[in-house]
Write a structure and sequence with these properties.
Shape: globular
Oligomer: single chain
Number of strands: 7
Strand order of the largest sheet: 3-2-1-4-5-6-7
Largest sheet: 7 strands, parallel
CATH superfamily of the largest domain: NAD(P)-binding Rossmann-like Domain
Number of helices: 9
Distance between the termini: 35 Å
CATH topology of the largest domain: Rossmann fold
Structural class: alpha/beta
Order of helices and strands: EHEHEHEHEHEHHHHE
Strand content: 5-15%
Bound molecules: nicotinamide-adenine-dinucleotide
Number of domains: 2
CATH class of the largest domain: Alpha Beta
Length: about 260
């Protein structure tokens, strides 16, 4: 990855974000972790990543639903690492309901965490990136940035919004050594998804294997979950100097889902 980099990964105390954080640390980046897990869990993670990779690991408990906290987290990372070179906007939540029954506060929370947080963090990190002539903004969107599914109006709207934000900021920063891209995973077996499998199996009276194949992976032609490590490898590549010409791209990693 070249000279030592400072990276912020939002929502990185679990799942995809944690995998990305570990992969960036393995490349020698100092890290700002962020997420809502307990102080005990977070302390353990920081210690483990520091021990494994010898990088500086910090933690921000900033709530991604609050724009001021998002901007303060970027400012804190900038002074800790002498700049944020890599920003991965990954924190995200989901809520499933038909639109007539979709609670307005759930809509507001999803738009704030899944879309507006990326606006605030990017706006705060870009001036430093432009001044240093290097930056990587990588937004973890979803196959739902490209196609829709019923009952996910807020999530699909927010993720489509992330695709638009990605393209716009890529154009605004293209001449400054800054790239802005979105990665669009299909289904990933994070703890969040894993926890739903036994319940769905019971509710539908089918096996857990059938839930994975016929419910979760129904739209995914490979019938394989996307792996956290695969997403982390793509993010690490996008963060590298070799990816300097990839910008404004909305890249599916979805086992063929959006090819249909
Ligand atoms: P996860 O629930 O395992 O992790 C989410 C992380 O975000 C956690 O660290 C959590 O603490 C943090 N978070 C949630 N709300 C927050 C808030 N208000 N402030 C700060 N942190 C907050 O989920 P995941 O599956 O790893 O998802 C990560 C991203 O990948 C999300 O943007 C999600 O939309 C996207 N994604 C996931 C899948 C999938 O199948 N798991 C597929 C496509 C896209």
């Amino acid at each position: 990855m070249g000279a030592r980099k400072g990276a912020v990964v939002t929502g990185s105390t679990s799942g995809i974000g944690l995998g990305i954080a570990r992969a960036l640390a393995a490349q020698g980046a100092d890290l700002m972790l962020n997420g809502l897990e307990t102080p005990g869990e977070v302390q353990e993670l920081c210690a483990e990543i520091t021990k494994d990779h010898g990088v500086e690991v910090r933690y921000s408990s900033a709530d991604m639903a609050d724009g001021e906290q998002v901007r303060a987290m970027i400012a804190e990372a900038e002074s800790a690492f002498e700049g944020v070179d890599i920003l991965v906007n990954n924190a995200g939540i989901q809520h499933v309901a038909e639109i007539e029954a979709f609670a307005p506060e759930k809509w507001d929370a999803i738009l704030a965490i899944n879309l507006s947080a990326a606006f605030h963090s990017t706006a705060a990190a870009l001036p430093g990136m432009k001044a240093r002539g290097f930056g990587r903004v990588i937004n973890i969107a979803s196959a739902h940035a490209l196609v829709a599914s019923p009952y996910k109006s807020a999530y699909v709207a927010a993720k489509h919004g992330v695709a638009g934000l990605t393209k716009t900021v890529a154009l605004e920063s293209a001449e400054h050594g800054v790239t802005v891209n979105a990665v669009c995973p299909g289904y990933v077996l994070t703890p969040l998804v894993e926890n739903q499998i036994p319940e769905t199996a019971r509710a539908r009276g089918i096996s857990e294997a059938a839930v994975k194949r016929d419910v979760l992976l129904a739209a995914q032609p490979t019938k394989q979950f996307v792996e956290v490590e695969q997403i982390a490898a793509l993010v690490t590549f996008l963060a590298s100097p070799a990816a300097a010409s990839i910008t404004g791209a909305v890249l599916p990693m979805d086992g063929g889902w959006t090819a249909q």
